[in-house]
UniProtKB/TrEMBL annotation, chains A, B, C:
Protein's UniProt keywords contain Membrane: yes
Organism domain of life: Bacteria
Gene designation: cax
Residue ranges of domain Sodium/calcium exchanger membrane region in the record: 26-178, 208-346
Organism: Bhargavaea changchunensis
Bilayer topology term: Multi-pass membrane protein
Classification via InterPro entries: CaH_exchang (IPR004713), CAX-like (IPR004798), NaCa_Exmemb (IPR004837), NCX_ion-bd_dom_sf (IPR044880)
Family recorded in the similarity comment: Belongs to the Ca(2+):cation antiporter (CaCA) (TC 2.A.19) family.
Parts of the chain that traverse the membrane: 28-47, 59-78, 84-113, 125-143, 155-176, 208-230, 242-264, 276-299, 305-327, 334-352
UniProtKB keywords: Antiport, Calcium, Calcium transport, Ion transport, Membrane, Transmembrane, Transmembrane helix, Transport
Localization: Endomembrane system
Function noted in UniProt: Ca(+)/H(+) antiporter that extrudes calcium in exchange for external protons.
Keyword Calcium: yes
Name this protein carries in UniProt: Ca(2+)/H(+) antiporter
Amino acid sequence: MNRIFTIVSFVGVPLVVAGSFLHWSSVIMFILCCVSIIGLSAIMGRATESLTIISGPRIGGLLNATFGNAVELIIAIFSLKAGLVGIVLASLTGSVIGNLLLVLGLSFFIGGLKHKRQNFSLRDARYNAGLLIFAIIVAFVIPEIFSQGMDDRGTISLSIGISVIMILLYLAGLFFKLVTHRGYFTGSDKESHGEQEEEEAEWSKGKAILILLLATAAVAFVSENLVHTFEDIGERFGWSELFIGVIIVAIVGNAAEHASALILAVKNKMDVSVEIAVGSTLQVAMFVAPALVLISLMMPVQMPLVFTVAELVAMITAALLTIVITLDGESNWFEGLTLLAAYLIMGIGFFFL
Amino acid sequence: MNRIFTIVSFVGVPLVVAGSFLHWSSVIMFILCCVSIIGLSAIMGRATESLTIISGPRIGGLLNATFGNAVELIIAIFSLKAGLVGIVLASLTGSVIGNLLLVLGLSFFIGGLKHKRQNFSLRDARYNAGLLIFAIIVAFVIPEIFSQGMDDRGTISLSIGISVIMILLYLAGLFFKLVTHRGYFTGSDKESHGEQEEEEAEWSKGKAILILLLATAAVAFVSENLVHTFEDIGERFGWSELFIGVIIVAIVGNAAEHASALILAVKNKMDVSVEIAVGSTLQVAMFVAPALVLISLMMPVQMPLVFTVAELVAMITAALLTIVITLDGESNWFEGLTLLAAYLIMGIGFFFL
Amino acid sequence: MNRIFTIVSFVGVPLVVAGSFLHWSSVIMFILCCVSIIGLSAIMGRATESLTIISGPRIGGLLNATFGNAVELIIAIFSLKAGLVGIVLASLTGSVIGNLLLVLGLSFFIGGLKHKRQNFSLRDARYNAGLLIFAIIVAFVIPEIFSQGMDDRGTISLSIGISVIMILLYLAGLFFKLVTHRGYFTGSDKESHGEQEEEEAEWSKGKAILILLLATAAVAFVSENLVHTFEDIGERFGWSELFIGVIIVAIVGNAAEHASALILAVKNKMDVSVEIAVGSTLQVAMFVAPALVLISLMMPVQMPLVFTVAELVAMITAALLTIVITLDGESNWFEGLTLLAAYLIMGIGFFFL
């Protein structure tokens, strides 16, 4: 699996470079960029994992939390630079529903085909449920509803205020999980870290950092090219900006994570699998999204934290469904299928919109 | 009890036949039709139960799932044929809130007057909670919100897509409960079926099938007459189409089921009582509603899966209230009263609308 | 603590009397009124507590339930008399989100700094969760949505109907907790009452009643003066009617309760602390709000039970967040911080609105 991702990156990136000079057609560039990004994010994942093992659970947790959604953040920054605010908000939505419904659904479904019932930490599930409600149902809904009675300046001020609060709460959450209440969460300490400590790091510290930096630079370059294909691709296939953002960008930006969640589910390590899917959602909602709002202040077009009603409803219902399905700390194939069915329904909805 | 229903049917149906030829007044026909349908659905319930006992839990479960809401389906088909799309959607809404709030509320309240606290299966409650969120909060909300930005063709396409997905998921749920995870749900296996196996079937296989067919035909005939009284009745009593659908049709279509849920609650078999109320809701939401969308494609007027905002809000809040109240696997009279109060509030709301 | 409140009252009330004759500036009067009300409500709390201890848990529970939000009720009645319907609805909203997010958040946070994890009764949490969903998500949402298709008479009729149902259900809930299922709720019987019985009443029955009556009269007088400063204060500080109601009035009206919830949280009596915060919310939603609707029928301007969308969304999301965070019967500092962050976000939202 790892070898495939490496080959894909080493072939894909040079082709993207070539294509960007030779002005290849949008379709070819779109495919090349998508494939390269998937390969590169797998490499970044491995580098981050090595660093995590070397630096111990505390700093490792911080590293994971920072680089876990780096690819998404990079694509979003280049989209913001190109003024595609709509695509950024759509891709954040896609990340949330993709992680909660597609990844968690596939993990539960495929894991459930092999194991009659799989368990995961109740404490984690509850911690995650509280933050999902906070981030998606409180922090995303408030600006949507309140901004209807505001001018643009009020909306941006409110967005900035909320973004700062969310990032601070996100950092407080890391402090809570990694410092004051470490060992309280089974999932993150006993199982995953316990095991990682047995493992040896794949790469040395220096090598891992170098690879991380190179891969990040490559992702940035490829992302810039990817972003410029969106308009053409949309016209050619009849895909709306919304559909490209919610479905395509979100899947490409999260593909590597998706693969590891799935593999862990089959190995019956549902704790870590759920942690990846839901943890990544929380990271997107509580860190990536507010960070992008703040970053956009330095961009030509500012991005308020205001999703469309359709995006908001998709995220809220996805969060509620996930919370109710995970609150018992158990999963089976049918729960996975239910999540997948919800994803499919939303996908069809965004396609026809 | 059974005898009363039989007498009612044997007197009511001939009177409906007579009235339809002699053009009796709408009020008399409305009352006769309602009473006959209640009687007939009790008979159909007994026939289905006999067949269930004879054919064992698997096929029996399937039979129950198919014929459980047959009466409602028949009334809805005749309403669709008469072009009354609004009444069909309203009666589906009424079925959902009637089952979740009125039936479950009465069961909890009356059962709770006799027993200080009653228990039911936690596994069932969680399975049901997940599907309620899926069906009502995801699958019904998405077309409502998304269709606002679509033309009629997009809305119908989305409705068809969602309907197919819901029916497939419903069938997968039956497969899950009856095949791969049988014995996993206490409610459906130990208590209800365990007991039914001790019981003897009331009627032989042949007799049960014959009665089922005859009663179904009679229900169809009476339903067609009932549907034609709606306009007159609405004008005479000042009831809106919405009120007739949500309150009247829903109560008539589910009366027999309601009676058995109540009787079981008093007997302290809360497991089966909850299963009837919530299971029937899920059947309406995940099978009857999408089936009607697909059936309407062959009718003069097509029915999209788009409820009014009031209907949707009534169903969503009913689902959330039920989930929170049932998630602990316990009930008492006050929880029942809370559900009934919510039903009353919605009833007043639909009356004034 | 108690001494400070007494001094504040004995100095504040005479100053308000003086100011109202000498026409002092609005800012000074506003501050004097707020401080006096906080002091007086602390005294009323002590008198109620004495009466509760003397009259035993049943009548005591009833007394607590009636006088617990007396200050709020009085301020609201004077606001209604002045025709400030918008401020009354806003202050009810502020009471709900203030109790659920600010008080509960502070209790969890400050209690959690001292104790790694604090527990409270699961039964209470579930009872409260059911009623929160009923009151805020069913009874407040239905008139909002349904009134959009109604004329004013329909809206008022629906509001009256819902108000009567809610008050009856609230009384039934008291009957349930204090009579039929007493001893069922750990929080209310073993811990809090058990302890109060050991304590001696601070004041005799006669003295407590006299103090209660005098303090109530003083609160009424001060409230009337407070209400008349709102317009000036709003203009001078750029605060909207909404912001004054949601944040200022709500904090002043509940300050004494807030203090006792906090003190109990630090003493690790989280059961009582949660009971105060959530119980007070339920009282506001199920008793104070509907009572004000009925009282407003005798006023020049009638108050329908129709909040603004922003108010409704704030209350719904606060209720959902609280339910998910309290459903496990445990709290820690981070859960408290999450609730506080949600309050802050809403506060910013109402400020910019």
